Amino acid sequence: PTGNELPPRGYDPGEDTFQPPPENRASVSVAVSPTSDRLQLLKPFAPWDGKTPEDLPILIKVKGKCTTDHISAGGPWLKYRGHLENISQNCLIGAINSENDEANKVKNQVTGEFGAVPQTAAYYRDHGIKWVVIGDHNYGEGSSREHAALEPRFLGGLAIIVRSFARIHETNLKKQGMLALTFVDAADYERIKPSDKVSILGLESFAPGKNLTLLVKHEDGSKEEIALAHSFNEGQIAWFKAGSALNLMAAKAKKN
Questions:
Q1: pLDDT of residue 94
Q2: Measured between alpha carbons, how far is 123 from 71 in angstroms, rounded to an integer?
Q3: What is each CA distance from 98 to 22, 39, 61, in whole angstroms?
Q4: Cross-strand partners of 181
Q5: Structure pTM?
Q6: Which residue, 29, 91, 179, 236, is the most exposed by fewest CB within 10 angstroms?
Q7: How far apart are alpha carbons 250 and 98 in whole angstroms?
Q8: Which CATH superfamily is domain 56-254 in?
């Protein structure tokens, strides 16, 4: 076949519709209807309070494969990509709960009732309780889905503790100010029960290459310590302390 590799009369230059932002942006606001179920303005996540996280409930101990689609389902949910509160109603609804081998059915450790994962997470958040997820190997495998990290953060999660991470999801969690941690000994996953309460020790000296410690309190009152590794560098630790990478960027921009 033959033909023109390039248009013989060149390309249509089109219309220049770019409007540069005003020099003074303080008065600029983005108008989003408060009744919209498709768009919602984002609010900054709270920075780390500097305290040792103690006696946190386990939202779910995930059994087996947990991809970004298990964490943030696609399909009809994608219409809510601009509305974090609405799309967060799909958070971890596909993950299998090790306690009962069911999806989207976890025990609320305060009320004792079983319910959906997002609603249970929101209950903890609204009662000022941070929570953690325990996961298996290659947690977060799949497309680089930002919402799979945004949703657990929005619902009040503090840490995702797993046997191993899919690399991109691990970084996405860090960017949202969440602790992405792995068991030094992958077999320690088996030592944790969904009814346990956990504390994360060592954050006051959080540093690259320095392990943290998970203090596990079992329902019978017994305790044990489990070593946790991480891959945070200095910049990523700053994201955690600031509450997210965006928070840190905003703080630096204000200084300039």
A1: 97
A2: 18
A3: 54, 35, 6
A4: 161
A5: 0.90
A6: 29
A7: 40
A8: Aconitase, domain 4 (3.20.19.10)
